[in-house]
Amino acid sequence: MRSRFDEQLAELNQELTRMGALCEKAIALVAEALSSEDKTMGKRVVELDREIDQMERDVEALCLRLLLQQQPVARDLRQISAALKMITDLERIGDQAEDIAEIISFHNGHAMPEHTHIHEMAKATSKMVTDSVDAYVKKDFARAEAVIAYDDTVDRCFNQVKRNLIEVIGRSPEDGEAALDLLMIAKYFERIGDHACNLAEWVQFSISGQHTQHPGDSADL
Questions:
Q1: Helix (H, G, I), strand (E, B) or coil at 87
Q2: What's the CA gap between 22 and 28, in Å, rounded?
Q3: What is the pLDDT of residues 145-191, one digit of tens each?
Q4: DSSP conformational letter for 66
Q5: What is the dihedral of CA 98, 101, 105, 110, to 10 degrees?
Q6: Which of 43, 105, 203, 205 is most buried, most CB within 10 Å of its CB?
Q7: Rounded CA gap, 144 and 13, in Å?
Q8: 183-220, pLDDT tens digit by residue?
Q9: Which residues have C-beta within 8 Å of that of residue 28, sequence separation ≥ 6?
Q10: From start to end of 30-130, where are the E strands?
Q11: Pairwise CA distance, residues 108 & 54, whole Å
């Protein structure tokens, strides 16, 4: 009986890893789309988001089977409960990547202000998602803690984006609309960072049994 349970837990880890990889891919695509005129990227992100949505349903069903059929206790129960919480944040990350792709699609072929720090945000949030899922699979509390600390990098980049775009609007009012769209994109990346922090917090809960919400966490959309 325990061997079957362990096989199902391994399957849960694999599916959660796959879902995280899809989110990473969606983030990478929208980051690339910022510098590209490839109109197919938006469609690819939409397709990825649909796949992420389906995976959320599949992983949720797997977790419920584990809870109902195996009736886990202690650490196993925390692991499954954390996975149920994590798939919600991963699904929202997919949604926000799609929202970014939609904004970018309106500007295909049109010049947008410089956005170096937004690319840094994309890289940082992708790393946070990767490390959170990896920490869950490896039961690595310290790595989850590092993800939470890394959110400061995302926040610093977001603040820099705001300052840069204020300068752009002041210098070239005709670029105001594009600048506001970039600000919205940066805000979505900042939200992705918050969701990644949520992932890390649930990883810590799965290990320690205590869920601590860190200052600045507010990813509820």
A1: helix
A2: 10
A3: 999 999 999 999 999 999 999 988 888 888 788 888 899 999 999 99
A4: I
A5: 160
A6: 203
A7: 16
A8: 999 999 999 999 999 999 999 999 998 887 766 555 55
A9: 122, 126
A10: none
A11: 29
Instruction: Compute φ and ψ for 39, nearest 5 degrees.
Output: -75, -10
Contact 98, 45 (CB under 8 A): yes
**Residue 133 tokens, joined:** 């899922």
129: tokens are 């998602």
Q: Quick one: tokens of 146?
A: 């590092």
**1, 42, 54, 154 from 117: Cα distances, Å:** 51, 21, 32, 9
The CA-based diameter of the chain, rounded to the nearest angstrom, is 68
Residues 132 and 17: beta-carbon distance below 8 Å: no
pTM over 0.70: yes
- Residue 221: pLDDT band with limits 50, 70, 90: very low
